[in-house]
Design a protein that fits this description.
Strand content: 25-35%
Distance between the termini: 8 Å
Structural class: alpha+beta
Number of domains: 5
Radius of gyration: 32 Å
Mean pLDDT: 79
Number of strands: 35
Length: 709
């Protein structure tokens, strides 16, 4: 019996592990320098300390890292890039990473950065001992605008003979969440966030000692100033209308400030420092505005900048604001190149960089504003509406799919589809040559919300091009590819690429009909459980599998993820979890087998049910089971397999397979045999040598003939 189709039903229960060196980073433009600086710290500085680094040096470096991380997170400024770079170097030294700079280089760079920070922030120097705090000079009044905050740095020198674990607090609120250690004779910077509530701010310094807490106070005089107010409008200089954009506002205190619709949304205020082995974030130095903004700033010199994507020039204004003044400001940015007119569409395939998180459920209105502010013509992102009530057939854990009608226009499109990872570190550098797109097709109503373009009316995302023109373009491309291939040897990769374009073209007409379930009878829907909420999602996947098999699709894979990404991974709550999983999948799978048999398809379709591994026969915690690869079950149906039998058994504890054991290589050999392929002869060239899936001389893989019909 030769098998023509394979349906694989997979229940995930493992971990997804990615190499940090292979991650595609998605950064907004302002962090280009941050990433470059981080990479420079990791790669370009002296590799390995040239001089010995003591435990005291490492401890000093770690708390320098804590201090600089505080500044990078809470006080975005023009020195943020250098601050993050130095923080990473301090951490690498503290944790003895191979790429750590030499101690000499580290200290020199530390002193250099501190000199620059002194020009930007007020620094108050104190000497600490158990007996008290001393200041070498009187502290002049620090100007703080009413209703705003300002960062001041307290430089603490430990004059005691013992290390001091210090916490600084204002009004009972700790400025450093945990005590920072200052070694004897060493200095450490403690940043403080001051507000203009009182003319004098009392700062409490507490040291944790074996004998108990030692507390001293000091005061900082405050000069309260009235803030200035900026009311801004952002214009598209080409269209002459208000436009969203990124706005950078640097006040007279050298701090960047936030306003706009996301001013209170942490997702738009911070980003993680990806190269930090200790989780830390940095504050974004800009904010998104919908076309207008209003912001309070300290009086004095202020710089306001409008940024709109890579096709636009920056628009910047330097102004001097008086205390209490309200100033109207208009910033206009023009496009210095129009890539769309040349057939190139700016796109970002992973807008979730806003928080660098995969499971982000931000409203599409937010995404649309960000898209226009960045001037990204196409946003192709499936993670913002992660895990909807009706999952998608392809990559069901990353639904939804398709264009979103209410957020698509002639200029901008939001796509919910499979993402194409950009390996050039972040998506904004990627210009997509999107004359036309072929989209994955959704599987049911409301896949991307009530306004989704559901099958069978999915369309190309960008330029609407008639099929005749697409055909002419493909024919022209084929001729160019043929000319390219002529003087070269046969190249399977080029041939495969050419065929992929043709396949994509054919799928535009074939796929919508295949995925359209409206022609199925109600009896068929009931057989798969589409009329029940518990079974509807997986039932839809199984019904679509049958429709694809009918249309000649050779391999179909179903992932069951109803209720979460890995619902079968029951490290706890196994009984209740597996009962729910069985309720969601049993009827749809039975319906699929029954339907395939009734249509005469089961004899030529191999159905494989299984997962990555089994669960332990012993408990994990109170009511869970751990991963277990030593004895577990899979089943096969149709496609030349004997029915009504069980093959193999475990020991009495269910721990090890001991009778008629089938290795995964044996399973592969058997599947290949059912497909009409000899696993001992099927090979492919890899790294210059022929390789086989089962490598029988090494693994002893065999076809399990006992399960064949």
């Amino acid at each position: 019996m030769k098998v023509f189709h394979v349906v694989s039903v997979t229940f995930l229960a493992g971990l997804i592990v990615t190499s940090a060196t292979e991650k595609a980073w998605a950064h907004p433009p302002e962090s280009r320098g941050v990433v470059a600086a981080a990479v420079q710290v990791g790669n370009a500085q002296e590799q390995g300390p040239a001089d010995p680094v003591s435990e005291a040096d490492r401890q000093v470096a770690y708390f320098q890292f804590e201090s600089l991380s505080w500044l990078a997170t809470r006080c975005p400024s023009p020195l943020q890039r250098e601050t993050i770079q130095q923080a990473l170097a301090e951490l690498q030294t503290a944790t003895q990473l191979p790429q750590a700079p030499s101690l000499k280089t580290l200290v020199a760079e530390r002193i250099s950065l501190q000199a620059k920070l002194r020009e930007q922030h007020r620094v108050v120097s104190l000497e600490w001992s158990k007996s008290g705090l001393e200041s070498a000079m009187d502290v002049p009044a620090i100007e703080v605008a009413r209703g705003l905050s300002r960062v001041v740095i307290v430089e603490v020198l430990n004059t005691d003979s013992e290390a001091a674990n210090l916490t600084l607090a204002i009004g009972g609120q700790n400025q450093n969440a945990v005590p920072w250690t200052v070694l004897p004779g060493k200095l450490l910077w403690f940043p403080l966030m001051l507000t203009a509530d009182l003319p004098v701010v009392k700062v409490t310094v507490t040291a944790e000692t074996n004998a108990g807490a030692v507390t001293h106070d000091f005061s900082l005089p405050i000069q309260i100033a009235e803030p200035a107010k900026l009311r801004g409008r952002l214009f598209d200089g080409d269209l002459g209308k208000v436009t969203p954009g990124r706005v950078w506002v640097k006040g007279s205190d050298h701090q960047y400030r936030h306003a706009g619709p996301f001013a209170a949304n942490k997702s738009f205020l911070e980003k993680p420092v990806l190269l930090s082995t200790v989780p830390r974030s940095y504050g974004l130095p800009f904010f998104y505005a919908d076309g207008t903004f209003e912001i309070d700033v300290p009086p004095g010199p202020t710089i306001v900048t409008l940024e709109r994507g890579f096709e636009h020039s920056l628009a910047s204004e330097s102004i001097d604001l008086a205390a209490g003044e309200t100033r109207e400001l208009t910033l206009s940015s023009r496009r210095f190149v129009d890539m769309k007119s040349q057939g190139w569409i700016s796109g970002d395939t992973h807008i979730h960089w806003v928080t660098n998180a995969w499971n982000v459920d931000l409203p599409l209105e937010h995404l649309s504003l960000v898209q226009k502010a960045e001037d990204l013509r196409v946003v192709n992102n499936l993670t913002l509406l992660h895990r909807t009530t009706v999952d998608a057939f392809v990559k069901p854990s990353q639904a939804p799919m398709g264009p979103i009608r209410n957020f698509c226009s002639d200029d901008y499109h939001i796509e919910m589809a499979e993402e194409y990872r950009n390996q050039n570190l972040y998506g904004h550098l990627c210009f997509l040559n999107l004359k036309w797109l072929v989209l994955p097709i959704g599987t049911g109503p409301q896949i991307a919300g009530d306004d989704s373009l559901d099958y069978p009316i999915n369309r190309t995302a960008s330029l609407q091009v008639p099929r005749e023109r697409q055909r002419r373009e493909l024919d022209a491309l084929a001729r160019l590819n043929a000319l390219h291939r002529e003087p070269r040897e046969d190249d399977d990769r080029l041939s495969a690429r050419i065929e992929s374009f043709e396949l994509a073209y054919r799928m535009q007409t074939e796929a919508p009909e295949a995925f359209d379930l409206t022609g199925e009878t109600s009896a068929t829907g009931q057989m798969y459980g589409l009329d029940q909420p518990t079974t509807e999602v997986f039932g839809r996947q199984c019904l679509l599998a049958r429709r694809l098999v009918e249309r000649g699709v050779r391999f179909v894979q179903l992932y069951h993820t109803t209720g979460g990404f890995q619902p079968w991974d029951q490290h706890s709550g196994l009984k209740a979890g597996h009962e729910n999983n069985a309720l969601a999948t049993d009827q749809p799978i039975a319906g699929l087998l029954q339907d395939l048999k009734a249509r005469g398809l089961l004899d030529e379709t191999l159905v494989i049910w299984g997962g990555e591994f089994g669960r332990t026969p012993t408990a994990e915690g109170k009511d869970g089971r751990d991963h277990h690869p030593f004895g577990f079950s899979m089943w096969l149906a149709g496609g030349g397999v004997r029915g009504g039998m069980a093959y193999g058994a475990t020991d009495e504890f269910g721990w090890d397979a001991i009778e008629n054991r089938v290795h995964v290589h044996d399973l592969h050999a058997t599947i290949l045999h059912l497909l009409g392929l000899d696993h001992e002869r099927l090979n492919f060239t890899h790294n210059g040598r022929p390789e086989r899936l089962t490598d029988p001389e090494v693994t002893g893989a065999r076809v399990v003939k006992e399960v064949l019909a």
